[in-house]
TrEMBL record:
PANTHER family: PROTEIN STICHEL-LIKE 2, REPLICATION FACTOR C / DNA POLYMERASE III GAMMA-TAU SUBUNIT
AAA+ ATPase domain residues: 34-189
GO cellular component, one term: DNA polymerase III complex
Name of this protein: DNA polymerase III subunit gamma/tau
Superkingdom as given in the UniProt entry: Bacteria
Record keywords, A-Z: ATP-binding, DNA replication, DNA-directed DNA polymerase, Metal-binding, Nucleotide-binding, Nucleotidyltransferase, Transferase, Zinc
Length: 567
């Protein structure tokens, strides 16, 4: 027997995390204020069906009925000893009828049910109909049910359960007493898991139980299912590391190592970790979620240093160290990438691809490394493109495809034009943030140039994107906050082979940025970021163009809103 069946609550007091519901129900049993229709609503796996059965027992328990007859007080808890209680516990009480509306949606099913409801109960005091997933009923079935709820036979109680309350007609809602079930808290789940583990003689550490509780997202039934899964897969005392492995969750340390590699711009390391996890059979979508969770914590630590995060002291210490390796903007930028590419897990046929795309994009991998891991990632990307060519209709992945095409063709671009090999340190590849159409245009353009190298191209060697500009500002901030502040008010106008032109609003900005001290720092940083020597020229612009910084801010707010809702 599965744990969740074996440990189904037999008393109201055993229900996990539903204090408010339990209290109200016990009160109504005690004071004999039971009604003819109940509606139990809330997420799956948190005790609605168990509560329905408890209520069926409380309504029919011989001990409770006897107490009421003699005007004696009762706790409201079923005795679990009388024939009624035992029969209901064993699932053989013919007067308690459980129906899954998902497979009995038609009006005929409900008519049949209503016909039988008119007949008196065979053994129990009242007939109890438990209709699960009641939102699945058809409109005519709801109408038939409504008529009965309007004039219910004295000997019948309906207990309706649903995960989708918004699909229940208002007419039904108004005729039933409603109870909203909530997800159980982490501690309540852990307490219960401890109790079950003890009874089952499962040796498991507290960290594992905590992890199971977190993975179950407040669903008591899922928590027991996961405990069962872990217990079945382990030998001897179960540790957190085994639990992670059995549940297909990567180690925190692995997640942090992965993020660290990206923070420090070591794509080979990030790709290697992704490939290893894939080979070991980890759930990579889950890993991606763990990366997002960790990046979110890093950002929280950055913006609110005193914030209380979930986790042990050791975990917080490691997070703080990780947070020290990147600035807030970069962490937010990475969050955006992992959230975006996380959506691809359902679309692509190579499970490791979304992670690879994220690593490549977030470290601006240039495509010239010969490391095995990078070559293998490249192979995956190419084979995925093949798949995609056969299915052009998957709209969600086309931007990724377009990005890859641009990345592949771009490295040829400057060499065809100027006859020089592209500097392997250049970050031109995959830097493109433009939309799909523009990417394709760029691809066509570069193809043409490869075919006819004598045509000189007037466009700049490398596109100055928002990301590159943002990186220049971030790098500058580390060396000179004043200069960084000046750059935030500026906008890159033009980038040619050896000159970056920056547009500023006022003469003041131009003079300050052009000061030799500032110009030197800026020139050095730009050289580092774009991978080639570059001088800086300032000019005052008309102020009509939209500053880059504003767009960036909107993006960041959007990401922040999206991420901080993830719980
Ligand atoms: Zn009883």
């Amino acid at each position: 027997m599965a744990f969740y069946q074996k440990y189904r609550s037999k008393n109201f007091s055993e229900m996990i995390g539903q204090g408010h519901v339990v209290q109200t129900l016990l009160e109504s049993v005690k004071s004999d204020k039971l009604v003819h229709a109940y509606l139990l609503t809330g997420p799956r796996g948190i005790g609605k069906t168990s509560t329905a059965r408890l209520l069926a027992k409380a309504i029919n328990c011989e001990e409770i009925l006897a107490a009421k007859k003699d005007n004696k007080s009762t706790t409201g808890e079923p005795c679990n000893k009388c024939t009624a209680c035992v029969d209901i516990n064993d699932g053989r009480a013919i007067d308690v009828i459980e129906i899954d509306a998902a497979s009995h949606t038609g009006v005929d099913d409900i008519r049949d049910l209503i016909e039988k409801a008119r007949l008196m109960p065979t053994k129990l005091k009242k007939k109890v109909y438990i209709i699960d997933e009641v939102h699945m009923l058809s409109k005519s079935a709801f109408n038939a049910l409504l008529k009965t709820l309007e004039e219910p036979p004295e000997h019948v109680v309906f207990i309706l359960a649903t995960t989708e309350i918004h699909k229940i007609p208002a007419t039904i809602l108004s005729r039933a007493q409603r109870f909203d079930f909530k997800r159980a808290g982490r501690e309540e789940l852990v307490e219960n898991l401890k109790r079950v583990a003890k009874t089952e003689k499962i040796e498991i550490d507290d960290d594992s139980l905590d992890l199971i509780a977190v993975s179950a997202s407040g669903a008591h039934r899922d928590a027991l299912g996961l405990l069962e899964q872990v217990a079945a897969g382990a030998n001897g005392k179960i540790t957190i590391s085994e639990t992670r492995q059995i549940l297909g969750l990567a180690e925190n340390a692995e997640v942090e190592k992965f993020i660290g590699a990206i923070f420090n711009n070591i794509p080979e390391e990030g790709l290697k970790i992704a490939q290893e996890l894939h080979n070991q059979g980890y759930d990579l979508a889950e890993f991606n979620r763990a990366v997002i969770t960790t990046l979110r914590q890093v950002v929280l630590l950055k913006v609110a240093k005193t914030i209380q995060l979930d986790g042990t002291k050791e975990e917080i210490k490691r997070l703080t160290e990780l947070a020290g390796q990147a600035d807030e903007d970069r962490a937010l930028f990475l969050l955006q990438i992992f959230i975006e590419n996380g959506k691809l897990f359902k679309e692509v046929s190579i499970p490791v691809l979304p992670l690879e795309l994220s690593v490549v994009k977030s470290t601006q991998y240039s495509g010239f490394s010969t490391q095995d891991s990078v070559l293998s990632a490249e192979k995956n990307l190419k084979s995925e493109i093949q798949d995609l060519k056969q299915d052009q209709n998957i709209a969600a992945v086309i931007p990724a495809k377009a990005g890859i095409q641009a990345a592949q063709s771009q490295p040829n671009f400057p060499s065809a034009r100027s006859g020089q090999a592209l500097d392997p340190g250049s970050r031109a590849a995959v830097r493109d943030d433009k939309n799909e159409g523009e990417n394709e245009a760029a691809t066509r353009k570069s193809d043409q140039e490869v075919d006819t190298p004598e045509i000189l191209c007037p466009v700049p060697v490398m596109e100055m994107t928002k990301d590159i500009w943002q990186e220049i500002i971030s790098e500058t901030k580390k060396e000179n906050a004043t200069l960084a502040a000046l750059l935030r008010d500026a906008k890159p106008d033009n980038l040619t082979d050896d000159t970056l032109t920056i547009g500023v609003k006022f003469k003041f900005h131009k003079e300050r940025i052009s000061e030799s001290k500032h110009a030197q720092i800026l020139s050095k940083i730009i050289t580092n970021v774009i991978g080639k020597n570059c001088r800086v020229v300032c000019k005052i612009h008309d102020g009509k163009s939209k500053p880059i910084q504003a767009e960036k801010k909107e993006d960041m707010n959007k990401i922040a809103a999206e991420v901080f809702e993830i719980e």
